Amino acid sequence: MLITACYIVKNEEKTLPRSIESLQGNFDELIVVDTGSTDKTVEVAKKYGASVYDYVWQGDFSAARNYALANAQGDWILFFDADEYYESGGSVRAYLEYLQHSGTDIDAVIINLYNLDSPQLPAMKVIRMFRNHPSIRYAGAVHEQIVRQDGHLHTLLAEQFKFMHTGYAIEAMPIKLRRNLDLIEADIARNGERDSYYYYLAECHFGLQHYPQALEYIAKALESPVKYPYELANYYHILLESMRQCNYPAKEMEKICNIAISLFPDMPEFYGEQGMIVSSMGRLEEALKLFSKCIACYHSPQRQNNHYGYFDDKVMEIVDTRITQIHELLEGGR
């Protein structure tokens, strides 16, 4: 059985070595598609024995990734970004060999991807390994997804593997989000608006602090039959924060929080959000109970099983401050 590792890159001379070295021994072929690097990325890739293909960027991430797949010879594909690397979990090769020879119908493997800059947060669940089959390709100009063009894509979550993402510089995020928004809007201009883009449009507008537009598209995303299950909690994060920024009444936000808590009862975030909302409405004792639940969920080992999270230690300091304020108010009223 052969395994091909693939990358699409541009100016990744600093991050690519770590990623490739972390996967050494787990692939037989290395393909790097370069979309216009002006640094030493191509030289770095060739040093590791990669077959490097020059690719004229077309404003479509799926097209670039699928170009790499068209040149891959392996039975299985490892497709990572240059700023991602393997940390632990055993042999990837042995795992894929097991899937290859076990007779399973699994097409793709979901892995846990942790953000190096925010280790407290739950891992993102992403597909980074899949069979090399003509019908299994990427779709979407931005936030590209692996799909099976001739039917349902059968996936499996490999909990044992831990991969790391080195993250984006904060100052670079607006540029990245603006680029993604421009690419999505260009694709919509060519092909029309699709349900699959509503969530990503909301995400871009939210990150760019365009809160009315974020509200518009996250509402469409929630009504759409096309949803991304591992991202669903973020739908409610975007909705709640955008409502807050647009000065929606606390009562309306409370209703959304109740829905989110019912869907994600193990997440600390929505108990914390609800605590802030009801405390602003004067329901202080109720807020304390919600904050207590928030803290318990935050420190639970089970939190790493959640598909999404956005509370970190800094946010929990805000929760602690609000708890102190509430106790002072309650003591002062006695």
TrEMBL record:
Residues in coiled coil: none
Xref: InterPro entries: Glyco_trans_2-like, Nucleotide-diphossugar_trans, TPR-like_helical_dom_sf, TPR_rpt
Ranges for domain Glycosyltransferase 2-like: 8-125
Top-level taxon: Bacteria
UniProt-listed PANTHER family: GLYCOSYLTRANSFERASE, POLY-BETA-1,6-N-ACETYL-D-GLUCOSAMINE SYNTHASE
Name this protein carries in UniProt: Glycosyltransferase 2-like domain-containing protein
Native species: Selenomonas ruminantium
